[in-house]
Design a protein that fits this description.
By secondary structure, this protein is mainly α. Helix content is 63%, strand content 2%. It is built from 8 helices and 2 strands. It has a two-stranded antiparallel sheet with strand order 1-2.
Length: 220
């Protein structure tokens, strides 16, 4: 059975190699294809098999071949869903700076609370160093809560409660930022047409409205 899968692997790799070379040969912009997203995926899909013949122990790179699954987008004609992925990518790019600022704030809070917890609890309660206390602060702030370290004093527990409540913002804030950018992009691409009432001057009437939302006058 092992020999069967070995042979099958080389047959599939050979087919992918032939397709990759044919794409390079037939395309007019070869450099652009080779350095493109799908061009790199095609290369990484076949490269580990050939590297295993040259470098000993490189069989672990075979896990990279899981990238072949991305080719399903082409086979099953799922490229139409790439538009949604492009919108998400644009939203992440737009909110990137905001997310970075938020992450810096989280790091500062974790360092401050971790240092403060080290001073409050001390080594006898498991907070043996400031880095270990910062680790506890990050674990608590992200609502993971391994439970390997826990404050014992009243002040320490109160500080932990505040940090746990702040942990909900770790999920809510970045999600809200990306969602707001997605809504903004959708509004920019699909603007809502408005109609103006000739009597009261209201401009908040939709394009499909027959009567004014303010005075009820029939729109022209």
């Amino acid at each position: 059975m092992e020999v069967f899968f070995f042979i099958l692997d080389w047959i599939i790799t050979g087919l992918f190699t032939i397709e990759y070379l044919l794409r390079i040969w037939t395309t007019e912009r070869r450099r652009r294809y080779i350095l493109s997203f799908y061009g790199l995926i095609d290369l990484f899909a076949i490269l580990p098999t050939y590297l295993s013949l040259i470098f000993v122990g490189s069989q672990a790179l075979a896990a990279i071949r899981v990238l072949r699954l991305l080719r399903v987008f082409r086979v099953l004609k799922l490229v139409q869903f790439m538009g949604a992925a492009s919108k998400l990518k644009a939203a992440l790019k737009t909110s990137f700076q905001k997310i970075i600022v938020f992450l810096f704030f989280i790091i500062i809070v974790s360092v401050f609370v971790g240092t403060l917890m080290f001073m409050i609890e001390g080594r006898e309660h498991g907070f043996t160093s400031i880095p270990r206390s910062i680790y506890w602060a990050i674990v608590t702030l992200t609502t993971v809560g391994y439970g390997d370290i826990a404050p014992q004093t009243t002040v320490g527990q109160l500080l932990a409660m505040v940090l746990m409540i702040m942990g909900y913002g770790v999920i809510a804030v970045p999600t809200g930022l990306v969602t707001a950018d997605l809504v903004r992009q959708n509004a920019d691409r699909h603007p809502v047409a408005e109609r103006t009432c000739s009597l009261c001057g209201n401009t908040n009437n939709k394009a499909s409205s027959k009567y004014c939302h303010e005075c009820g006058t029939k729109l022209d």
